[in-house]
């Protein structure tokens, strides 16, 4: 109403300054102006409604995109958390495997060294000056080479205590200390004398009834043989 009165006063001011209108003309002018204002307001209302509808569409689309992005981020966050948990389990597993792997690595290196030494002993057995003897309290017992390249046989068994095994080849002599194996002492393992085991030498005596001793150069493990019954 105030807007309409304002327009009417403006209209009266403009037209009154140009031509003097009577009351009827003024009423007609006011009605025309009132109709134009209504049409203008209707147009503005329609435009505002259309803008509101478009704004609602934009808002709905923005909310949908926001929800989609939020769900995507939440899913990715869950995936990252699950991946982090899986990595944590793998790290704990690897940490637990560290000690066994180091132990296995040491054993593999030791085995590689033993394998190289075994090849060296077998190669040395082909040398003309090769000799293998067992030093006992009663003297030295010589081992004979068998047909198999890494097998040595000792036939002359006695009741003397074995002290060490000497292998000579190429002018070089190595000593190996014996250790009894098995509950009955039917086996013997020889270990290279590195100077730190002299106080821990095992006592090895040929068991009663054994008629020969077989030693493998590849492993330095030996076994006593008994007559078949």
Structure description:
This protein is about 50% helix and about 25% strand. It is built from 2 helices and 10 strands. Strands 1, 2, 3, 4, 5, 6, 7, 8, 9 and 10 form a 10-stranded antiparallel β-sheet that branches. α1 (about 1-20) crosses α2.
Secondary-structure class: alpha+beta
What can be said about the biggest beta sheet?
10 strands, antiparallel
Radius of gyration: 55 Å
- Which ranges are low-confidence, i.e. pLDDT below 50, for 5 or more consecutive residues? none
Molecular shape: rod-shaped
| Counted beta strands | 10
Quote the average pLDDT: 83
Termini, distance in Å?
135 Å
Oligomer: single chain
Tally of alpha and pi helices? 2
Order of helices and strands: HHEEEEEEEEEE
Helix content: 40-55%
Strand content: 15-25%
What secondary-structure arrangement, pairings included, does this model have?
Layout: H1 2-18, H2 23-124, E1 131-136, E2 139-142, E3 144-145, E4 151-154, E5 161-169, E6 172-181, E7 187-192, E8 204-205, E9 212-216, E10 221-225
Antiparallel strand pairs: 1-2, 1-5, 3-4, 4-9, 5-6, 5-8, 6-7, 7-10, 9-10
Helix pairs in contact: 1-2
Keywords for this entry:
single chain; 229 residues; alpha+beta; 2 helices; 10 strands; 52% helix; rod-shaped
């Amino acid at each position: 109403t105030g807007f309409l009165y304002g327009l009417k006063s403006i209209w009266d001011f403009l037209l009154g300054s140009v031509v003097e209108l009577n009351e009827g003309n003024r009423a007609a002018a006011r009605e025309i102006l009132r109709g134009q204002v209504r049409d203008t307001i209707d147009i503005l209302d329609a435009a505002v409604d259309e803008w509101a509808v478009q704004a609602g569409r934009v808002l709905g689309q923005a909310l949908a995109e926001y929800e989609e992005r939020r769900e995507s981020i939440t899913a990715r966050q869950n995936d990252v958390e699950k991946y982090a948990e899986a990595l944590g389990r793998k790290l704990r597993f690897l940490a637990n495997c560290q000690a066994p792997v180091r132990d296995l690595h040491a054993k593999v290196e030791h085995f590689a060294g033993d394998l190289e030494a075994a090849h060296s002993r077998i190669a040395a057995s082909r040398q003309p000056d090769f000799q293998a003897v067992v030093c006992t309290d009663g003297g030295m017992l010589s081992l004979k080479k068998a047909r198999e390249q890494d097998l040595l046989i000792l036939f002359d068994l006695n009741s003397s205590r074995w002290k060490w095994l000497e292998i000579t080849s190429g002018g070089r002599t190595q000593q190996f200390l014996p250790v009894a194996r098995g509950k009955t002492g039917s086996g013997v393992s020889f270990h290279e004398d590195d100077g730190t085991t002299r106080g821990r030498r095992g006592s090895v005596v040929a068991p009663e009834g054994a008629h020969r001793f077989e030693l493998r150069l590849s492993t330095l493990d030996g076994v006593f043989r008994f007559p078949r019954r």
